[in-house]
Amino acid sequence: MKHIKFLFLALLIIGVSSNTFAGNKYGVRAGWQTSNLSIGNFNNLNTFYLGVFKEQKIIPFFRFGGGLEYQQSGAEFDAKNILKMHYISIPLYLKVKLGPLYALGGGAPSFKVGESWKIEDIHEEYKKLAELNTFDFPVFAGLGINILILRIEARYYWGTMEIGEGSVTAGTKNQYFQLGLGIAI
């Protein structure tokens, strides 16, 4: 039994090493996301994100990556009034890697594919938020660590565009923090 475990571990290390030198990495990532709006004293909306990615090695410690993700942003105005916007985003980033640690930054063109409302007693002006924009372009920065094929990563996103049109949403942008796991091969 010990020999089988040792053989399995050796094959895993060889497989990870050969993928490391090949240049391209493919994977999936998912995790917890907390979001809010840039203006207002609202409660954070706790949701999730899920996506796939590909990275191309430029030089040994520098990579370019991109992917496709589903995520939810918004805010809880109070316990009875919640706005949740559903996005498909295309994160594009540059990554600097030093050993198992890395830092990354980039932008994520995001397309709103839906929105969910829970409205019970919200002020009438907020109902005008229904005219939300369908495109957002957040920028992000993050840190992570690789442990064999597993990645642990944290990213913070700043929206660069207003979420809607009109006086109620003037200056209001998405902001969110992601903490998650990924598997890269």
Strand tally is 11
SSE sequence, one letter per element: HEEEEEEEEEEE
CATH class: Mainly Beta
Content of β-strand: over 45%
* Envelope shape: elongated
Q: According to CATH, what is the topology?
A: Porin
The helix count comes to 1
List the helices and strands and how they pair.
Elements (H helix, E strand, L loop, with lengths): L1 H21 L1 E14 L7 E15 L2 E17 L2 E9 L2 E7 L2 E7 L2 E9 L16 E2 L2 E9 L2 E9 L15 E11 L1
Highlighted features:
single chain; 185 residues; mainly beta; Porin; 8-stranded antiparallel β-barrel; 11 strands; elongated
Can you tell me about this structure?
- By secondary structure, the protein is mostly beta strands.
- It has a single domain, classed as Beta Barrel (Porin), CATH 2.40.160.
- The chain contains one helix and eleven strands, in the order H-E-E-E-E-E-E-E-E-E-E-E.
- Strands 1-2-3-5-6-9-10-11 form an eight-stranded antiparallel beta barrel.
- Strand 9 and strand 10 form a beta hairpin.
- The longest helix has 21 residues.
- The two termini are 27 Å apart.
- The N terminus is likely disordered.
Short synopsis of the structure:
By secondary structure, this protein is mostly beta strands. Helices cover 11% and strands 59% of the residues. It has one domain: Beta Barrel (Porin).
